[in-house]
Automatic annotation (TrEMBL):
Subcellular location: Cytoplasm; Nucleus
Catalyses which reaction(s): dITP + H2O = dIMP + diphosphate + H(+); XTP + H2O = XMP + diphosphate + H(+); ITP + H2O = IMP + diphosphate + H(+); N(6)-hydroxy-dATP + H2O = N(6)-hydroxy-dAMP + diphosphate + H(+)
GO cellular component: cytoplasm; nucleus
Keyword Membrane: no
Name the UniProt record assigns to this protein: Inosine triphosphate pyrophosphatase
InterPro entries: ITPase, ITPase-like_fam, RdgB/HAM1
CDD domains: HAM1 (cd00515)
Binding site for Mg(2+): E38, D66
GO biological process terms, semicolon-separated: deoxyribonucleoside triphosphate catabolic process; nucleotide metabolic process
Cofactor note: Binds 1 divalent metal cation per subunit; can use either Mg(2+) or Mn(2+).
Protein's UniProt keywords contain Coiled coil: no
The organism of origin for this protein: Tolypocladium capitatum
Superkingdom classification of source: Eukaryota
Length: 190
């Protein structure tokens, strides 16, 4: 059964407004910022564990989100280590920067990548999280466009980097949009 109110675990107002815009009046989305320990593992394992931890703290229904960048030549790495909200992201991204991320693929002819957004929903303590994931296929290119969000200037989709797209255009095709559409369908069916 779908909740009437959902605690989205984020301190990021932009993420909150995006989630509210896409989910519409399907559910009342409130936000709460929590500092949660994050495990290492697969994209899905990290999201599910984080969701369980949040549900235990909140004692009710929660939604968590993680976004990452996966290089196909590197078998989906850096993947979970490039989650925008993951503690390793800041360290990893500060050390490498956009040029360093490009250099990770210098020895490989395959520059294809996936932008991945994973939302995990948990009804509350003791319940198993449900995963909703969106992926966008693209490729890694030298940086183009403004530096508004992490790796957007190097992820190209159909000739434009995410950084070169306006927000409305990006939100119609983004990995976040695709994951939220799945969540919205599930909420409406429940």
């Amino acid at each position: 059964m779908a909740p009437k109110q959902l605690n989205f675990i984020t301190g990021n107002k932009n993420k909150l407004s995006t989630v509210r815009a896409i989910l519409g009046d399907t559910v009342d989305v409130q936000s709460q910022s929590l500092d949660l320990v994050e495990i290492q593992g697969t994209i899905e394992d990290i999201s599910a564990d984080k969701c369980r931890r949040a549900a235990d703290v909140i004692k009710g229904p929660v939604l968590v989100e993680d976004t990452c960048l996966c290089f196909n030549a590197l078998k989906e790495l850096p993947g979970p280590y490039m989650y925008a909200g993951h503690t390793s992201f800041k360290w990893f991204f500060e050390k490498l920067g956009l040029e360093g991320l490009n250099n990770l693929l210098a020895a490989y002819p395959d520059k294809s990548a996936q932008a991945v957004c994973t939302f995990a929903y948990c009804e509350g303590p003791g319940h198993e999280p449900i995963i909703f994931q969106g992926r966008v296929d693209g490729k890694i290119v030298p940086a183009r466009g403004p530096m508004n969000f992490g790796w957007d200037p190097i992820f190209e989709y159909e000739g434009q980097t995410f950084a070169e797209m306006n927000k409305v255009e990006k939100n119609k095709i983004s990995h976040s949009f695709r994951a939220l559409e799945k969540l919205k369908d599930w909420l409406e069916e429940s």
